[in-house]
Amino acid sequence: MAIEVNNAVFHYPDGTIAIDDVSFKVPTGSVTALVGPNGVGKTTMLNLIAGDLELNEGSIRSDTEVAYMRQNPGFDDPATATVLDALALSLPRELVPVHARLQGLYASDLSDADTGIALAEALEIWQALGGYVAEAMWDQTTRAVLDEGLATAGDRRLTELSGGERKGIILRSFMASSVPTLILDEPDNFLDLNAKAWLEESLRTSPKTILVVSHDRTLLTKSVDRMVVLEHNGSWIHGGHYGTFRDERRKRNERLAKDVDAWNAEERRLYRYYKLMKNRAGSSEALASRADAAQTRWERFRDAGPPQLPPPEREIVPKFVGSRAGNEAIRITDLEVDDLVLPFSLTIYNGDCVALLGENGVGKSTFIRSLRDDRLIESGHLRFGPTARVGFFSQDVDIPDEGRELLDIVKTRFPNPEEARRALGRYGLADRIRHHISELSGGQKARVQMLLLERDDPNVLLLDEPTDNLDLESIQVIEEVLADLDATQVAITHDGWFTRIFNRFIVFDKDGLVGEVPERLRALHIVGGRSFSLLDEPDVKILTTV
C-alpha cells in the first residue's frame, strides 16, 4: 500500500474534532478519490498525510515519497512569485533545498570567486539528482500552457496569469514529476473544459499512485478506481467510481437505518423484559435473581451504544422563489467589454438557462461581470427586463469579514437573529455561526454566498462557476433548485455535468468571436477541442456583429 491510514483522530487545540476514527488504504498505482461534505476534514486529512499536521491518535504510513499539490497553489504567494517558483512546488524532496540554494546564488554577485565555486558545486548536485530533467519537463509544461518556453516564461509573475494558467502549470508539473505518489486537492478548480479533459486522461493513464480530492462528477466517473468517503464519524470505502456511488451510498444508508431500527427494537425489548422481571421479583428469590440478570443485560446493551447512524442525505435546503423579469430578460446589442471579445448581440428570454462556455482567458468572466457593472462596458447597449432583479454569484467575490462572526454577517440580511440562525441551518452551517469567513472551507464560503444571494430574491441569476468547491450532495441540491427555479439564469461553467440543466449554449473562442451552439453535447465537444475557432464550426450561429 502506498498510503495507509489507521484509526486517525485529529482535533484542534480548542478540542474541536476534525478527524474522528478514519481508516483507509490507497493501493499502489491506484487513483483514489477522497470525498465528503464540505467541512468534514478532507483537506485536513491531506495535510495529515503530507506531514503538515500531526495526529492525536492513530497512525499514517507511506512507503513512497509523496508530493502534495494544495488546493490553490500559487494563489496566495507573494506578488513577486514567478512561474519558476510555482513549478518548483513539484520538485522531489531532495531537490528542494538545492533549487533554493541555486536561486539564492543566482541573485548574488556571480563575479565573486567563492560564489562561483558554490554555484558550480550546487549545479553538480542539481545534475546528479535529476534537476536538469526537471527543467526540461518545466519547459514542456510552460510551452503547453503559455505557448512559450521556460527561458522566457520562468520569470513571469504569477499575478500576470489567469487562474486556469496558474493551476495548469502547477498541475502539469506535478503530473510529470518523478515523485511516485501524488496528493491533489481540488486539481480541477479553475480549469476549463479542455484542461479538464487533459486531467481526466492523465489521471486515467498515469502509473503514479494518486489520492485526489475532487467534486467534479465527470472526473470521478472517468478517472478514479475507488472512493474514500469521509463522514463526521468515520469513513467508508466505495470500490468503484461516481457512476455507481450514489446507488451504493443509498443502499448503505438504508442498511445503517435498518441496523439502528433493529438496535432500538432490541433495546426496548430488553428494557421491557427487565421491568417485567423487576415487577415480579418480590414473589421469589429466583425471580429477583433473574431480574438482576435482565437489568445487567439491558444496561450492557444500552451502554455499548447504537450502531453507526446514517449521515444526513442533504445539508442544503435553499428557498429561492423566482419570478418573471419580462419577456426579454436581457437584451445585448453590439456589446464590447474588453479587447478579448468582439462586439456581439444576444437576446436572453425570460426563463432561459444560458451556459457560457469557452477556454480560460477568453473574456467570459469580464462579460458576466459587465452585466452587473455597466462601467465595464466599452461600447454597445445592455437592457434588462422592466421587473428584473439581478443577483450575482462568483467564487472570486470576497464576503467582507471585518472581524465579524458568520452569524453577525448573515444577520444584516434578516429581521431577527433567530431567522438568521435557521437560514444558516438550512445551508448546513449551524455549527459555524461563531466562525469567521476566513475559517470556513471553500465550499462553506460558497454556501454563505448562495444564502446571501437567495435573500436578495433575484429573478435574473448571473453565476460564475457556481459548482466549484461545493461537495457532491450540495451540487446536486443546487442543481435541482436551479433546474426548478422560475428565473432567468446565465452561468459560466466548466462543469460538463452541470450543463445538463441549461437550454442555451453560448461559446467564446480565442479569436474574440461569440456564437450559439444548438446542442449541449456539440457545444461541449467544440469547447473541449484544442484551440478551436467558431468559424470552422458549421452548426454555430455567430453572434459577433463585426
CATH topology of the largest domain: Rossmann fold
Write down the CATH class of the largest domain: Alpha Beta
Overall SS class: alpha/beta
Give the strand content: 15-25%
| Structure annotation, total helices | 17
Instruction: Please provide the count of β strands.
Output: 19
Shape: globular
- In which range does the helix fraction lie? 25-40%
- Terminal CA distance reads 59 Å
Mean of residue pLDDT values: 89
Main-sheet strand order equals: 14-15-16-12-17-18-19
CATH architecture of the largest domain: 3-Layer(aba) Sandwich
For this structure, what is the CATH homologous superfamily of the largest domain?
P-loop containing nucleotide triphosphate hydrolases
- Could you say how many structural domains there are in total? 3
Low-confidence stretches: none
Largest sheet: 7 strands, mixed
- From the alpha carbons, calculate the radius of gyration and give it in angstroms: 28 Å
